């Protein structure tokens, strides 16, 4: 179908601006629907991954390992999805990524049934593909977006994740009961939901993301039908802005590291203080809701007041989150909810502002590949945070981990001060 459309465009050499807007709106709708399921797949597994590892291995010291494994898997998948998207379009890359994540989640279920640590590790690694694809989908919304609407487009995709992301952790108890009813360990139940949700997300992308927005932009910027789009999209940069790429990457990498480290150990911390699965699911659900729900407002703010201001807002919010988590009583649901909400909000500010800086700094000939490469680094940062978090808590405390994460976020201040000129958003004259 896509090839037919491209052939038709080549023959007619013309397309209306209205048609282009329709494709853009359709892209946002399709990707947003897929993200509802993708969010559920991401959140349900994250909520109990550490607890499942703790149960199967009998120690807290390695309870951060699941987050590390699926984040390393996310890094590998981000690299592959980015290059598949660069070559074949978003549809191919996102479909393969979601389906792989779904198979990984179902592998975790089998590992829990058979009590196989090796299969658990391998499956968590593959499960990371769903996490990577869930994040890579945010780029699809920017492909046909006007330059001064890119952050808003990213935010629309992210806010759609909220529905599934909030529902996933709050179905932990229900899925645990369902798992027990069919002879599966309770902590594997959420991964049944994850696997199903990721597979559905992949099928939605495969069946409905036509025509592919990234292939259209590549065609335009390669001058195949450049005149068709004159006045509809701004001219692309003639070369990538390496400094802007580095800044955008630094913002996303550091916010990911801080968020993953604190979030990963929160369920374990809560369990030690007598909280049940439902309470843990509520706190993580609110946290993940805070990661995505503010996106519509965040996108507008990034477009209106600038990328720099929102990076600074991210730093301040993460610092507050770390401080509150560090001093909160372990048995206080209220303080944990406040701390984890701020943690999600700070991540949201950093992800959207950093992503927008990255898109601003790249052209379509290398954009998807560059995005995939940066997401590899983001995933590796998350893996480091997840792996180290368990060790820090085991040999120190959850409070020490949280406080260190808040302080670490301050490293972004010199970045935005040094390169504030690069980060200023300049709207191109059309």
From TrEMBL:
Keyword DNA-binding (UniProt): no
Annotated transmembrane regions: 28-52, 64-82, 94-113, 119-139, 151-172, 178-209, 245-268, 280-302, 309-327, 333-352, 373-395, 401-421
SUPFAM superfamilies membership: MFS general substrate transporter
InterPro entries: MFS (IPR011701), MFS_dom (IPR020846), MFS_trans_sf (IPR036259)
Chain ranges of the Major facilitator superfamily (MFS) profile domain: 27-423
Gene Ontology CC: one annotated term: plasma membrane
UniProt keyword list: Membrane, Transmembrane, Transmembrane helix, Transport
Pfam families reported for this sequence: MFS_1
Superkingdom of the organism of origin: Bacteria
Subcellular location: Cell membrane
Coiled coil: none
An example molecular function term from Gene Ontology annotations: transmembrane transporter activity
Recorded topology in the membrane: Multi-pass membrane protein
Protein name (database record): MFS transporter
Organism listed in the record: Fictibacillus arsenicus
